[in-house]
From TrEMBL:
It comes from the Bacteria. Signal peptide: none annotated. Residues 5-232 form the ABC transporter domain. This is ABC transporter ATP-binding protein. Keywords: ATP-binding, Nucleotide-binding, Transport. It comes from Alkalimonas collagenimarina. The lineage of its organism: Bacteria, Pseudomonadati, Pseudomonadota, Gammaproteobacteria, Alkalimonas. Pfam families: ABC_tran.
């Protein structure tokens, strides 16, 4: 499949400080990629390079085969910057119309497009309002709506749900989920739960370097993870019994009444079944057994 974003040996520094070091990654059509990393890891810098706001010192970046910022990308790539702001002098509708006009739409078509994208984020009724009359969450949603104007094939969202209450954040996640597949997304967020639900690819930036892509399938075939939530506070006896099952690689208490198990499916393909049989034979009740590792567990190596 053709790459949408291709970054090769991208390095960027500010003064004597190197912020991004030799980054290599590729996104293909339909990918929804998460960009994760601690504060100051270089996420916004990378976004800015991909958007064409900043230029890398060395290496190459291409979007749909073009340099970031190139006129060939106009309308194909949209971005929500971290601190997107609206001009206080104009209504939200006027400003979104302007973006539509920039994409070549007539005034009438631009207004229709404005109403379409504001409807996506439940703000159609606020089309005449100025930013000062909107709450922080509403402004954020309006800024997200702006990224949906036209028919971009790649949308870059820097912290899209930061500052939104849980209901509005859920609404935005549902919207991204609905559109992903047709549109490729690259999303930066500190909300790992959100990214886990939305993204099929993880780019973890730390000290300006990309760590291994945690979606590696080879790794998953060698090890399988299970999270077991018990009904009762008996993790010690359960741990001792499960420790006898063939194929177990590790067992680790997570929270109270919760264990994370890692096993080798090549050693024991029926591990999960044998686990349930072990629980049943001892009369131990469980609330939930889930397969796989959470993104948090993968990233922070808590297995
Ligand atoms: N224009 C600039 N001039 C000098 N240093 C900068 C500039 N922009 C960013 N930096 C530095 O580059 C590093 C990476 O910043 P960046 O904003 O890309 O990180 P981030 O991962 O987006 O952080 P956060 O999660 O806090 O938003 C930081 O140390 C920051 O101080």
């Amino acid at each position: 499949m053709k790459p949408i974003i291709q970054c090769t040996n991208v390095t960027k520094g500010f003064g004597s400080k190197t912020v991004l070091q030799q980054l290599n990654f590729e996104l293909t059509q339909g990918d929804t990629a998460a960009l994760i990393g601690p504060n100051g890891a270089g996420k916004t810098t990378l976004f800015s390079i991909i958007c064409g706001y900043l230029r890398q010192d060395s290496g190459s970046v291409s979007l749909f085969g073009h340099k970031p910022g190139s006129s060939a990308l106009f309308g194909q790539v949209a971005a929500l910057p971290q601190d997107a702001r609206f001009d206080p002098a104009f209504s939200i509708g006027e400003q979104l119309d302007f973006y539509g006009r920039l994409q070549g739409l007539s005034s009438k078509a631009a207004r229709q497009e404005t109403l379409r994208v504001l409807t996506l984020v439940d703000l159609a009724e606020q089309v005449q309002q100025k930013a000062a009359a909107l709450s922080h969450g509403m402004c954020k949603r309006a800024a997200i709506a702006q990224a949906f104007i036209g028919s971009p094939q790649l949308i870059l969202l820097d912290e899209p749900t930061a500052g939104l209450d849980p209901v509005n954040a859920l609404h935005i996640r549902q919207l991204i989920n609905r559109l992903s597949g047709d549109v490729s997304f690259m999303i930066s967020s500190h909300n790992i739960f959100e990214l886990e639900q939305l993204c099929n690819k993880v780019l973890y930036l730390e000290h300006g370097k990309l760590q291994a892509d945690t979606t590696s399938e080879n790794e998953q075939q060698l090890q399988q993870y299970l999270t077991l939530q018990l009904e009762d506070d008996n993790t010690e006896v359960v741990t001792a019994a499960i420790g006898q099952l063939p194929g177990l690689l590790s067992i680790r208490p997570m929270q109270k009444k919760e264990l994370q198990l890692c096993y080798d499916p090549q050693q024991n393909a029926n591990f999960d079944l044998e686990l349930l049989q072990c629980l049943a034979a001892n009369g131990w009740r469980y609330r939930n057994l889930t397969k796989g590792q959470t993104l948090e567990q993968k990233l922070f190596n808590t297995a």
